[in-house]
Amino acid sequence: MRYGAMNFPVLPVVEEIKTFNELGFDYLELTMDPPEAHYSILSEHRSVLIEALENSAMGIVCHLPTFVYAADLTDSIRRASMTEMQRSLAVAADLGADKVVLHPPMISGMGAYVADRVRALAIEFIADMVEISTATGVTICLENMMPRNGFGVEPAELEMLFWRFPTLQLTLDTGHANLGENGSTRLGELVERFGERIGHVHLSDNRGRHDEHLPLGFGNIDFRRLAEELHTVGYEGTLTFEVFDEDRRLLVESRRYWRQLFDIST
């Protein structure tokens, strides 16, 4: 299993690479959001970033932009979001990423009143992204979302997407899965249903109400059970600690906590 950490996009990416290398992580999960990690800035500093990764012997997984509206009811907003995603995917491929994390589009604004229409737009967007990713040789790992996203949350809906798009893999996000009324069972159901389709994992803890990105063991997620389940399905891929705290040592503590649980499960 390879362990990574995610940059804070208000900090220069090269500094983040240095920090995570010093903390002993195997790869950077590059979240491609402004101000410091927009695709235009990454493209401009491509050679410097690649050199920093090579000198650190670190790999890269890219997380496509978060704050876009790819299924918005307004055509111009939707088109602008698609442009951002397409160009980000191209830069991710150019940086050497072989997988990218993609959020299913959110149902927002007046879309709540015409949810079926927004879902159709979201599926159209995913189809376009899958087609582009196939051409670039990059695998899309679709992330299960938190309930307020309105789409891509429950296992049944995700199963439809994975059936429709056979090349999609799952980014299993523990924090998102733990939220809402079904949080106590959703995480286990995701592993059970999609064990063979898991291509990436995000680990963070919370208390079931908000996506707090706490260190492992600080919330109520049963990581011991998750470690056993991932071992059972044979998952040995990339695992990013999405612990968002100024004290980066908590990333190391979360990694240690997980390794102990995973070693016990094996």
Structure description:
With 266 residues, this protein is of the alpha/beta class. The protein has ten helices and eight strands. The chain has helices spanning 13-22, 39-44, 46-56, 75-94, 115-136, 155-164, 174-177, 183-194, 223-232, 249-265; strands at residues 2-6, 27-31, 59-63, 99-102, 139-143, 169-173, 198-203, 238-241. Strands 1-2-3-4-5-6-7-8 form an eight-stranded parallel barrel, surrounded by five helices. Helix 9 (223-232) links the parallel strand 7 and strand 8. Helix 1 (13-22) packs parallel to helix 3, helix 4 (75-94) runs parallel beside helix 5 (115-136) and helix 8 packs parallel to helix 9. The chain is globular. The mean pLDDT is 96.
Fold topology:
Elements: E1 2-6, H1 13-22, E2 27-31, H2 39-44, H3 46-56, E3 59-63, H4 75-94, E4 99-102, H5 115-136, E5 139-143, H6 155-164, E6 169-173, H7 174-177, H8 183-194, E7 198-203, H9 223-232, E8 238-241, H10 249-265
Parallel strand pairs: 1-2, 1-8, 2-3, 3-4, 4-5, 5-6, 6-7, 7-8
Helix pairs in contact: 1-3, 4-5, 8-9, 9-10
